[in-house]
Amino acid sequence: MENGQPPLSHVVPPEKLPRHIAIIMDGNGRWAKRQGKPRLAGHEAGSETVRRLLGYCRDAGIAYLTLYAFSTENWSRPPDEVAGLMNLLGYFIRKNEAELLEKQVRLRVIGRREDLPEPLQADILRLERETEHFERQLLIGLSYSGRSEIARAARRLAEQVKAGTLAPEAIDEAAVAANLYAPDVPDPDLIIRTSGEMRISNFLLWQCAYSEIYVTPVLWPDFDERAFRDALLAYAARDRRFGGVKV
Ligand code: FPP
Predict the structure, then answer these.
(1) What is the pLDDT of residue 106?
(2) Disulfide: which of 17, 59, 106, 156 matches 134 by Cβ 3.0-4.6 Å?
(3) Residue 41 pLDDT > 80, yes or no?
(4) Each residue of 120-140: pLDDT tens digit?
(5) Residue 8: exposure state from Cβ atoms within 10 A (0-12, 13-18, ≥19)
(6) Count of CB atoms within 10 A of residue 102's CB?
(7) How far is the CA of 22 from the centre of ligand 1 (A)?
(8) pLDDT more than 90, % of the chain
(9) Rounded distance, CA 59 to CA 53, Å?
């Protein structure tokens, strides 16, 4: 019991808990502006939210967490903001290496990792290898976009057809899904977007087909345990039908 609240593991019954939560972390810039600080201060505060969130997910028993940290479109931001974000991501990975190992969390990056600065690519690869045997997973979208992920899957399928290992008529939904960045990860049950925007912004376009979407006005740096609880409660109250009807 914390602040009169039940522990995160008891907020909703286990069968009402999302297995996979994906988050569009929005509002760092607005948070910084409200504080009269540079945008990068918002991203730093947002990175602290990520660290706290890992604890909430562990306590609640969430198996998969995917974070949209940098989209393919984000490269068009001012160069100092892009450089600052890349530094911050590298710092986050190095700083949390021991913690991820100790807490047994598998790190995976989805996106065009070849676009990232080489030292960051090396840090990512090292930690991915060190953690690849763990079951709970943290996926981070870096230079990620849903459309480019689907285009990449199409390209990979075309290569298999060309090589004679795949018949065109064998291309079905499962074949496309098998060529996404993390084919073994279940689709997100819950997609959270902070800062009130009602958009999917090119995030997990294939995987979001039946995801429940929850938008909160809270800005990402302010997303705390209470905001996380509210999202879990909202999800638990949803009636998921996957296109069917309730009998
Ligand atoms: C959107 O806010 C946020 C981003 C583009 C960056 C998200 C990055 C972090 C939270 C930093 C660290 C991430 C990890 C995984 C350690 P915005 O800048 O678009 O905000 P605005 O819409 O208010 O301007």
Answers:
(1) 98
(2) 106
(3) yes
(4) 999 999 999 999 999 999 999
(5) buried
(6) 9
(7) 14
(8) 94
(9) 10
Q: Catalytic residue numbers?
A: 26, 74
From residue 200, alpha-carbon distances to 29, 204, 236 in Å are 18, 8, 21
Q: How far apart are CA 55 and CA 121, in angstroms?
A: 25
Check residue 230 and give its pLDDT.
Answer: 97
Distance, in Å, from the CA atom of 23 to the CA atom of 49, rounded to the nearest integer, reads: 12
45 CA from centroid of ligand 1 (Å): 9
Examine the pLDDT at 11 and tell me if it is beyond 90: yes
The CA distance from 96 to 91, in Å, is 8
Task: Read off the amino acid at residue 57.
Answer: C
Measured from the CB, is residue 201 less than 6 Å from ligand 1? no
- Going from the N-terminus, what domains does the chain have, and what CATH number goes with each? 20-236 (3.40.1180.10)
Cβ contact 229:8 at 8 Å? yes
> The whole model's pTM is what?
0.96
Residue 62: name the closest of 8, 111, 114, 100 by CA. 8
pLDDT at 247: 63
